[in-house]
């Protein structure tokens, strides 16, 4: 381990010497922990990171003033639809998707490094259960959907097929997620096909460019955003693992959408048959302020403009037909070819610009006493998973029905929307529709028919 003097010199180079200011008063164990944490921070990268954060903070808040003039909706030729168009084409996409799955060429990749702050839980969101009668958690529902798509593809092609499940975690979520999967026997999946890996963490920085001490013996760190995926793929040689398994196509999704269709054959087949290297599922936005990114074009290039970076005026613009002009809501379901991911990790990752999130970061005051700030006091820098879209050679979007595919769990039940109750109802309503479509009838305790209309599930 580097000596304190070495570390002080390194930190001086990064103008971050203050991180050692309580070091002398620490007991041996916390002192060693702090020094180990500081040793892992490369001085030049730390200097750049802190400078960038301060510079980003000095810029006027809100989207660039010329963004509105540079935006356009996606041209229709880039957009497919799961519901419009002829059923024959949809069947072709589905067949192609199942075929690729049966050939073991499809993997799913879960982005599960987030902290669930808005939901108000201290454990990984995937371990949350929304109060279903079965008490299943999000992780269990996803595992079961993987098993089902493997089974369906296997039945069609008479093979035993595997959809490997890659799970990107963070320092916050890896330990509990790994333990949870073990305790639940990997939900009957083969543990060899569940591959967990960890994304990097970055220091939180004050508005004047100083990394923040969370405790006397700990620098405040935060995951590097879901776009940290690309360095994590490289750090853990995940693309090599995919190559060994023969995986060519990857369905990337985030943990909180209870309706997610893992390795959706229709989406996979659509992207493959269109020769896409990169794709995104979208739903029609529900209302202008909905916190979803918008899939659109900036300067003629496909991109997602995140909800935090679009002005309310632009979000409210209407198309001639009366609907929202920017209505393609990103549901964080992406298709990538392995080749495209390889180009990203080898060449493009350093070009991805971090986004700034201003947050309340727990810290210590000048005497080393812990402080829970009431106002935002720091910046977290994050990359976004969709920031690679502009580099795609052939990007496509795929519009799906919200009620079948999107009900995110973002907030606690105290909020009106996107909470455990809305997620639970969305899933129950979907299962009800499936059962009815398969010929089921719902009867009450007296044998009277009920629940013929999925809307009757609203009060569950
Ligand atoms: C960086 C990123 O991926 N943001 C996504 C993601 O938002 P979060 O607020 O980070 O959960 O999920 C939304 C859909 O639930 C999607 O609309 C948005 O663009």
Features:
alpha/beta, 3-stranded antiparallel beta sheet, 22 strands, 32% helix, 20% strand, binds 2-acetamido-2-deoxy-1-O-phosphono-alpha-D-glucopyranose, UDP-N-acetylglucosamine pyrophosphorylase 1 like 1
Describe the structure.
It comes from Ovis aries. This is UDP-N-acetylglucosamine pyrophosphorylase 1 like 1. By secondary structure, the chain is α/β, with parallel strands linked by helices. It is 32% helix and 20% strand. The chain contains 14 helices and 22 strands. The strands form 7 sheets. It has an 8-stranded mixed sheet, with helices on both faces. A 3-stranded antiparallel sheet has the order 1-13-14. The chain has a 3-stranded antiparallel sheet with strand order 7-19-16, with helices on one face. The relative contact order is 0.15. It binds 2-acetamido-2-deoxy-1-O-phosphono-alpha-D-glucopyranose (GN1). 2-acetamido-2-deoxy-1-O-phosphono-alpha-D-glucopyranose is lined by residues 226, 254, 291-293, 304, 306, 330-332, 384-386, 408.
Read across the widest sheet, the strand sequence of neighbours is: 2-20-12-15-11-3-4-5
Major sheet? 8 strands, mixed
Tally of individual helices: 14
The quaternary state of the protein chains shown equals single chain
List unreliable stretches of 5+ residues. none
Q: Which outline best applies?
A: globular
Q: Averaging pLDDT over every residue, what do you get?
A: 94
Strand content range = 15-25%
Bound molecules: 2-acetamido-2-deoxy-1-O-phosphono-alpha-D-glucopyranose
Query: CA-to-CA gap between the ends?
Result: 57 Å
SS elements, strand count: 22
- Computed over alpha carbons, the radius of gyration is 24 Å
Task: Give helix % range.
Answer: 25-40%
The computed structural class is alpha/beta
């Amino acid at each position: 381990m580097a000596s304190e003097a070495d570390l002080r010199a390194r930190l001086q180079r990064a103008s971050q010497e203050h991180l050692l200011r309580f070091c002398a008063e620490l007991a041996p164990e916390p002192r060693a922990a702090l020094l180990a944490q500081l040793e892992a921070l490369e001085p030049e990268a730390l200097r750049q990171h802190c400078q960038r954060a301060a510079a980003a903070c000095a810029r006027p808040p809100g989207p660039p003033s010329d963004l509105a003039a540079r935006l356009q909706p996606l041209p229709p030729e880039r957009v497919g639809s799961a519901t419009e168009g002829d059923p024959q084409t949809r069947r072709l996409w589905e067949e192609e998707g199942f075929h690729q799955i049966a050939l073991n060429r499809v993997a799913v990749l879960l982005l599960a490094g987030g902290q669930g702050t808005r939901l108000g839980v201290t454990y990984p969101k995937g371990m949350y259960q929304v109060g279903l009668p079965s008490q299943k958690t999000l992780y269990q529902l996803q595992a079961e959907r993987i098993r089902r798509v493997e089974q369906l593809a296997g039945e069609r092609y008479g093979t035993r097929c595997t959809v490997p499940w890659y799970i990107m975690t963070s320092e916050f979520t890896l330990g509990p997620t790994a333990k949870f999967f073990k305790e639940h026997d990997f939900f009957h999946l083969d543990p060899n096909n569940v591959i967990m890996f960890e994304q990097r963490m970055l220091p939180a920085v004050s508005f004047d460019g100083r990394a923040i001490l969370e405790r006397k013996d700990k620098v405040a760190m935060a995951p590097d955003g879901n776009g940290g995926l690309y360095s994590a793929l490289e750090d853990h040689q995940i693309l090599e693992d995919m190559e060994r398994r023969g995986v060519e196509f990857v369905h990337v999704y985030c943990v909180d959408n209870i309706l997610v269709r893992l390795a959706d054959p229709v989406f996979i087949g659509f992207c493959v048959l269109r020769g896409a290297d990169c794709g995104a599922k979208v739903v029609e936005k529900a209302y202008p302020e909905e916190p979803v990114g918008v899939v659109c074009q900036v300067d003629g290039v496909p991109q997602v403009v995140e909800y935090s970076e679009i002005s309310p005026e632009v979000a409210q613009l209407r198309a001639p037909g009366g609907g929202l002009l920017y209505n393609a809501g990103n549901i964080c379901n992406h298709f990538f070819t392995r080749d495209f991911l390889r180009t990203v990790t080898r060449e493009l990752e350093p070009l991805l610009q971090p986004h700034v999130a201003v947050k309340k970061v727990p810290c210590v005051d000048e005497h080393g006493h812990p402080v829970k700030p009431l106002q935002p006091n720091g910046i977290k820098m994050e990359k976004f998973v969709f920031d690679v879209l502009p580099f795609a050679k052939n990007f496509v979007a795929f519009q799906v029905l919200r009620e079948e595919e999107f009900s995110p769990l973002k907030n606690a039940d105290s909020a009106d929307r996107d909470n455990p109750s809305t997620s639970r109802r969305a899933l129950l309503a979907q299962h009800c529709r499936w059962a009815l479509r398969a010929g089921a009838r719902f009867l009450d305790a007296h044998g009277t028919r009920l629940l013929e209309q999925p809307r009757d599930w609203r009060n569950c």
